Every structure is written in structure tokens, then in C-alpha cells.
Amino acid sequence: MVAMGGGPEVPLKESGKKELILCTLPWPEEQVQKGIEGLKEEFKDVEVKYFHSVFDNGKSEPLQVPEEYLNRASYLSTLFWLPPSPKSIPKVNLIQFFSAGTNHVAQHPIYTDSKIPLCSANGVHGPQIAEWVIMMDLVHSHNLPKLLDLQKEKKWVQKAGMNVSDRVGKRVGILGYGSIGRQVARLAKALGQDVIAYTASPRETPESRRDTGYIVPGTGDPNGEFPSAWYSGTDKASIHEFLKQEIDLLVLAVPLTKSTTHLLSTTEFALLHKSNPRGTYIANIARGPVIDQPALVHALHNNLIRGAALDVTDPEPLPVDDPLWDAPNVLITPHVSGSSDVYADRAFEVLRENMRRFRGGRGLVNEVDRGRGY
């Protein structure tokens, strides 16, 4: 668990030799003043230069950053934008992404051809995305879409809302037990649900089950205490063993890598149906390609699963003629589950922690393992 907002004193640079923190982020500068002032308050020897990187509906507008700032920058904080090559930022000590993953830059020369440490903002999304997952599951299980349609038609039809399945005793399977999955587990346990966890690597000891990343205070599962059972592995047999556990809500929270692409496809949907004839509800807050989308559409039409809540699709934005729009029992939102009015504040906290660690010669939090892809 990472304690934020404090820590040991960090060495200051020689007076008059201020380090430059270059920010290229998708918020107007006035909206993130709290984060910028936090940097300046803690690190008296830094200068912050901010550029608004306009981003909308999955696309970012071109951004021009003067070469003088690229040459001087010691730290770069960004969401999507990167300079063209490692040579463009010769003095950068680390790049702090304000995103949970870095798969969107995995083919960039800075990712493939440099050793500049890349750090994610993993952990800042846990509360709001977990709320989205639980909200969508409750919306579906309480028939809210049907009831809202009836309200628009000004119709009072009680039987439309009578077939409710409450959550007590249901099983939540979390595929990818990271910061988001751990907060989903906390909320699920509060509703009286059973939680089982899946990780790529075995977590057989209490120490291995602890969360060593950034944690929003009071959230998550820092010590890995909520799951009643743990599963692990990267081969199909291990994943299938997990999917056989009569899961009522399956939460996809894995990073997108070569091995997780189409992790759920025809075979997996059939397995879920066989394990739980009541029907598994799937919530995908990972990345769209984690699911084989045509296979998902088929599963929805043939009642192999109870339904799906998708904040991510393949591709994004989802084309207007994609059959997923009209599939039964599907709820789609446009990649917004991670949105929060304190998102940027939390991400700046991660940047501050990594600056402390870099200056103190300690390991960085949320550093990306380029070999694993996350």
C-alpha cells in the first residue's frame, strides 16, 4: 500500500537550477490548479509548464510543444500525447501517464526503443469504476431500463418491475484483481456477495496478496482479504477453471495484451452458461478487444449470458451500424466509467509520489513492465 501526500524529505536541486515538469493533459489548466499547486508546494525547485491536450470521443487534436521545453523537461505527465522520439526528451527522468494502462502507446518509439521509466495512474480509477460496475449490475437486476421506458410512456406497469434478483449470496468473479477489482470486491462484500479473484501470477501467501500500488484512502482491499478463493494462470485451462465457478457477475479488469485479446470468446461463453444456467452478467471496464465482440453478440442473442454492461468496445467509438447496439440485454456507455471530479487530483498525487521516489533512489509506483505490457 502506498501512502500519499507526505513522505521523507527529497533532495532539492542546486538553487537557481529549477527542474521542469512538463504537463500535456486533457483538462483546461484552471481545472487542475490544485494538482499543479501541490507540485510547487512540495517541490520548491521545480517549474511547471502546462499544455492543454484537447481530447474528445477517442481522438486527440495535434499538440505542438516548443522544443525548448522538451529539451529541458525532467518529468513528463501526459494522458495520450508523446513527443516523436526519445531523443526529443533527453533529460526526462520518468513519464507519468494519467491513464490506467499504456497499451495505447505500446508501439511508440519511446515505449519500444527507450528505457525511460513509464508509470501508470493505476489506482486513481478504483472508486468511480467500481461504482459503475455495481450500478450497472443493479440497474439490470432491478429491471430499471424497462421501468424507465415505461416512465417515458407514462405507463404504470407493476409486473415489469417484479422479477427482481437481489445480490445477497450471488458470486462475483473478478478477472484481474488490481485496484479496480479490489474496490469492486469491497462494494460487493457490502452487498452480501461472495467474491472470487483471478490473477495472472499465483497469490498463495498473505504477502503476495497485498496491494503495493496507489490506493485511494479507505478503498480497495489492501491486504487481499475479501476473496473467498483465488485462481491464477495465463493458460486457457486455468482461465476455464475460474469460469466454471458458477459466476453471477463477471468483471473484466485485465490489461490489454496479446494474451488477453479475445480472452472471452465462444468457448468461454458456453462454459459460463454451463456453469451457471441462471446466467452470468458481464461487466467490461478493461478494453474492448478483451472480448471477441461478434461472439458476445451471439451469446446475448442466444441467452448464453444474462447480459452485459460495456464501457469499452471494439472499436471505439462504436460504429452506428454495429450489431452490438441492438443486442438484447446490453448496456453501453462511451468509455466514461473512469470519470470523476477528483481524477486529476489523484493522478497528480501519483506523480508527486514518483518524484519523491525517484529523488530518493527508491522504486517507482505503478512502473510499467514493458515485457509484460503493463
TrEMBL record:
MF terms (GO), sorted A to Z: NAD binding; oxidoreductase activity
Query: SUPFAM superfamilies annotated for this entry?
Result: NAD(P)-binding Rossmann-fold domains
Look up the domain of life of the source. Eukaryota
Print the keywords alphabetically.
NAD, Oxidoreductase
Q: Which part of the chain is the D-isomer specific 2-hydroxyacid dehydrogenase NAD-binding domain?
A: 135-206, 233-337
Question: Which species is this record about?
Answer: Paraphoma chrysanthemicola
| Protein name (Swiss-Prot/TrEMBL) | D-isomer specific 2-hydroxyacid dehydrogenase NAD-binding domain-containing protein
Matching entries from InterPro entries are given as:
D-isomer_DH_CS1, D-isomer_DH_NAD-bd, NAD(P)-bd_dom_sf
